[in-house]
UniProtKB/TrEMBL annotation:
Gene Ontology CC terms: cytosol
Catalytic activity annotation: IMP + H2O = 5-formamido-1-(5-phospho-D-ribosyl)imidazole-4-carboxamide; (6R)-10-formyltetrahydrofolate + 5-amino-1-(5-phospho-beta-D-ribosyl)imidazole-4-carboxamide = 5-formamido-1-(5-phospho-D-ribosyl)imidazole-4-carboxamide + (6S)-5,6,7,8-tetrahydrofolate
Keyword Transferase found: yes
Biological or metabolic pathway of the protein: Purine metabolism; IMP biosynthesis via de novo pathway; 5-formamido-1-(5-phospho-D-ribosyl)imidazole-4-carboxamide from 5-amino-1-(5-phospho-D-ribosyl)imidazole-4-carboxamide (10-formyl THF route): step 1/1; Purine metabolism; IMP biosynthesis via de novo pathway; IMP from 5-formamido-1-(5-phospho-D-ribosyl)imidazole-4-carboxamide: step 1/1
GO BP, sorted A to Z: 'de novo' IMP biosynthetic process
Name this polypeptide is given: Bifunctional purine biosynthesis protein PurH
Gene: purH
Length: 512
């Protein structure tokens, strides 16, 4: 007895070969309009669904498959005598295989940015219903939504005598439900502009299985947020090197997020999500040199991001050190050739290295999510307050601004010591602010030797004056912090006693 396959696809890739394979396995094929036309044009023997069920496609194609004969044929349980008798009584044939994919809503709404009325026409109704019905009845009906699965379906029929086993059917149904869930998520997010809606779901698509997670005993995979248009790893191209690890990708994003903050040639060197050196200069090779000497020990095995094309001179400097990943907008041909001789380095080209980030951040907790806006506030230094008796001079102002930009990207408690163009010492992720201060000074290699003014930036307020006293002894001449402590007066007095300039931003930049 012949079986019946219903084919209704927007993406036509592979459908001709699939149809021919199904016919070879004793399937009759019925199709909707566009699929029917393509198969007939390719001389495949198929029937048009509207003719088989005697129900025309209506209202500009909005109604094609929404008919009781179609859904009864899909949903009837083959081992249920009542179901099968009802099909016979109503002259309805069972449908054994459904191949369907949906209108490209994402392309219309997000990539092409069509007007809303046009986008509405890309909301698939019948296709989603077909997929869900077939997936629900997976024990009797095979559902296929991905052209990449066509070959495996035919191969299994070849090997198993026209049978798809129940394990494969369940896998295909699971994939189908995930597909429709993601599709509905895209639509929901398009119409729901509130990022803190009462209920929401995101659509993520797996792009790679990773070797492991943070540690070798943890499994891991990489998923792309289908809503995001941020400059990210997903818009980048790996030019050289082995697969990036979970930790590589985390650090790569941290490095990229720093360098896009700056207009001048800038380098950020990252270890475990924290910068160990950041510098900007008139050219990218000097930016790298300055960032590297900020903490050469920590820079071993680091991730480096540059916001300019890598030239031969920069490549020569980097090649002499052990680097896990190098991220840049592009690579000169000679620079790439030189770096590619290093087997273990990964070279990543960001096509869109621009200041573009996701508007929200999600943090998983047991049983749910924390959701917050990303820390992308555009600060106006004209709103900052000089609260000390002495005002910063021009060089100190530039140093304060630079240090403050970097501090935003350092794990709390964070202290950054910097001049107008480079960090000298970074104290990251410490449990107390004074510990962060002491660590930054330890890493700074005598900041007092720079006479142009060394700035200290703190991501949060100083609860006591101790950090100010320590920084003064190390040669720091100016300080920038949010302010807001009950002991602000003590901190201001300490700066005045030491002749240091102190600026309150009114903005905190905790990072956890």
């Amino acid at each position: 007895m012949k079986k019946v396959a219903l084919l209704s696809v927007y993406e036509k890739r592979g459908i001709v070969d699939l149809a021919r394979g199904l016919i070879a396995h004793n399937y009759d094929i019925i199709c909707t309009g566009g699929t029917y036309k393509m198969l007939v044009d390719n001389r495949v023997d198929v029937k048009r669904l509207s003719e088989v069920i005697d129900a025309p496609e209506m209202i500009d194609g909005r109604v094609k498959t929404l008919h009781p004969s179609v859904f009864a044929g899909i949903l009837a349980k083959r081992n249920n005598e009542k179901h099968m008798n009802e099909l016979k009584e109503n002259n309805i044939f069972p449908i054994d295989l459904v191949v369907c994919n949906l209108y490209p809503f994402y392309k219309a709404a997000y990539e092409m940015n069509m007007p809303e009325d046009d986008v509405l026409e890309y909301i698939d109704i019948g296709g989603v219903s077909l997929i869900r019905a077939a997936a629900k009845n997976f024990k009797d009906v095979i559902v296929v939504i991905d052209p990449d699965d066509y070959k495996s379906i035919i191969d299994e029929m070849d090997q198993e005598g026209n049978i798809i086993n129940i394990i494969k059917r369940r896998e295909l149904a699971t994939k189908a439900f995930g597909y429709t869930m993601g599709y509905d998520s895209l639509i929901s997010r398009y119409f729901g502009k509130d990022i803190f809606a009462e209920q929401f779901s995101n659509s993520y698509k797996k792009t790679a299985d990773l070797r492991y997670g943070e540690n070798p005993h943890q499994r891991a995979a990489l998923y792309r947020d289908m809503f995001s248009n941020a400059s990210s790893f997903f818009t980048a191209e790996k030019l050289h090197g082995k697969q990036l690890s979970y930790n590589n990708i985390v650090d790569l994003e941290a490095a990229k997020d720093i360098v896009i903050e700056f207009d001048k040639p800038t380098c950020a060197i990252i270890k475990h999500s924290n910068p160990c050196g950041v510098a900007m200069a008139d050219n990218i090779v000097d930016a790298y040199r300055l960032a590297y000497i900020a903490d050469p020990i920590s820079a071993y095995g680091s991730i480096i991001a540059l916001n300019r094309k890598v030239d031969l001179e920069t490549a020569s400097e980097i090649k002499s050190n052990f680097v896990e990943v190098l991220v840049a907008p592009d690579f000169d041909e000679e620079a790439f050739s030189m770096l590619a001789t290093k087997k273990n380095i990964r070279l990543i080209k960001y096509r869109d290295m621009e200041k573009s980030v996701d508007p929200v951040i999600y943090k998983h907790i047991a049983g749910g999510l924390l959701v917050q806006e990303n820390d992308t506030i555009e600060e106006d230094d004209k709103t900052w307050r000089i609260v000390s008796e002495r005002e910063p001079n021009d060089k100190e102002w530039r140093a304060l601004k630079f240090a403050w930009k970097v501090a935003k990207h350092v794990k709390s408690n964070a202290i950054v010591l910097a001049t107008e163009s480079r960090t000298y010492g970074i104290g990251a992720g410490q449990m107390s602010r004074v510990d962060a201060c002491e660590l930054a000074i330890k890493k700074s290699n005598a900041v007092g030797s720079y006479t142009g003014g060394t700035a200290m930036a703190s991501d949060g307020f100083f609860p006591f004056r101790d950090s100010i006293d320590i920084a003064h002894k190390a040669g720091v001449s100016c300080v920038i912090e949010p302010g807001g402590s009950v002991r602000d007066r003590d901190v201001i007095d300490a700066c005045n006693e030491h002749g240091m300039a102190l600026v309150f931003t009114g903005i905190r930049h905790f990072k956890h």
